[in-house]
Write a structure and sequence with these properties.
This protein has 372 residues and is an alpha/beta fold. The protein is built from 14 helices and 13 strands. Helix 1 (17-31) links the parallel strand 1 and strand 2.
Length: 372
């Protein structure tokens, strides 16, 4: 493949699976010999992490929709040639689309749709997806079907490219390393069953339903919440008010999430909205964990009930508690689900697969071809 010049734009200043995917994708395309630049706000978390990885980063005021960001992006594109722009959030997608609409021979736009939040069915949105964007990538097949139906897109202009993870990092550890992980987070407590969640602390991730489930379970069931976000203070207040402080711990963000995952006995992600294919769920499965999840977004594309995990209704604490009890009391079931989750992760979740598919999509967009 001819080397491409690729620009990624990300207006979000947060930190989560979307930003981690972008950086993973950039590192993979750089490794394949392509040129990659990231444009993002100076204060964004992804800017900080990109610099740590040596990724070429241009800081620009694109956090909000407005003329200032639009003019800055247009000016940059006018003087810097790229073959394709990969946009990620709503704001930078609109700014890139409008900037390109005012340029002669603009680069092609590939819009990655990461989550399943509703899209307004209006003229502006249809223009963005049908005319301004050359091709669209989604993180799951359900999201692809949503776009085809909602935006009346031709099926060959939308491709599902599930997020990939580093399987050399996310993997089961040996017994000694796992024991050290549990000691790090739980000290001398040994006879406990650990339920874990790794997720940005947003309301729709469903942490409150998990806490209600934990409250109803025996005292030897403990919970570790990994991540940070806007709901941090509210969750800590709930933990204190419900008398769970001795059984529930919050770590904030961790640089070595894989260590925390190996300290869990099972992983729970009780989301009720806005999911694509959650990266943390894939990471947990790659670490050989039995998982409990809800049927939102494209979650059911990786979690098959009673094969790679247990599916429960969303916003249902009793169902979460029942599933945790089932895994805690049935060692054979938990062992079988752990093996199923690990096998699926090793065969489908490689970041190399994701990068290969996205690179091919970029090349197709740059060539203005019409068939996937």
């Amino acid at each position: 493949m001819k080397p491409l010049k690729i620009l990624h734009t990300e207006s979000s200043c947060g930190w989560g699976g979307q930003e981690i995917r972008i950086l993973t994708e950039i590192r993979g395309t750089l490794h394949r010999g392509h040129s990659v630049i990231l444009i993002t706000p100076a204060q964004s978390n992804i800017a900080r992490e990109a610099r740590k990885s040596g990724i070429s980063t241009v800081c620009m005021d694109i956090e909000k929709k407005g003329f200032r960001g639009l003019w800055a992006l247009r000016s940059w594109l006018k003087t810097n040639h790229v073959d394709v722009i990969n946009t990620h959030s709503s704001t930078d997608s609109w700014l890139a689309a409008l900037a390109c609409a005012t340029l002669r021979n603009p680069p092609a736009i590939v819009r990655t749709r990461h989550i399943s939040s509703p899209i307004p069915n209006n003229f502006a949105s249809r223009w963005l997806y049908q005319r301004a964007t050359a091709l669209t990538a989604t993180t799951g097949e359900r999201l692809r079907e949503q776009l085809i139906g909602k935006m009346a897109l031709q099926p060959n202009r939308v491709q599902s490219v599930p997020t990939g993870i580093d399987l050399s990092r996310y993997k089961p550890l040996d017994d000694a390393a796992r024991h050290a992980a549990r000691k790090r987070f739980f000290g001398t407590k040994t006879d406990i069953f650990v339920v874990g969640i790794v997720a940005t602390l947003r309301s729709w991730k469903g942490h409150t339903y998990l806490l209600d489930a934990i409250e109803s379970l025996p005292d030897d069931v403990h919970c570790l919440i990994v991540g940070d976000g806007p709901q941090a203070a509210a969750l800590q207040q709930k933990i204190d008010a419900d008398g769970l402080s001795a059984r529930v711990s919050m770590t904030g963000n961790l640089d070595d999430v894989e260590i925390a995952l190996n300290a869990f006995d099972c992983f729970v992600l009780p989301s009720y909205a806005n999911e694509g294919v959650p990266q943390a769920l894939m990471q947990a499965m790659a670490c050989g964990l039995a998982v409990i999840a809800t049927p939102v977004g494209s979650v059911d594309e990786i979690v098959a009930h009673d094969e790679t995990g247990l599916m429960v209704p969303f916003k249902d604490s009793a169902a979460i508690a029942a599933a945790i009890t089932q895994l805690r009391s049935d060692d054979a079931l938990r062992t079988r689900l752990c093996a199923g989750a690990l096998a699926r992760a090793q065969s489908r979740f490689s970041d190399a697969i994701m990068v290969d598919k996205m690179t091919a999509l970029f090349a197709r967009a740059a060539q203005r071809t019409a068939t996937i």
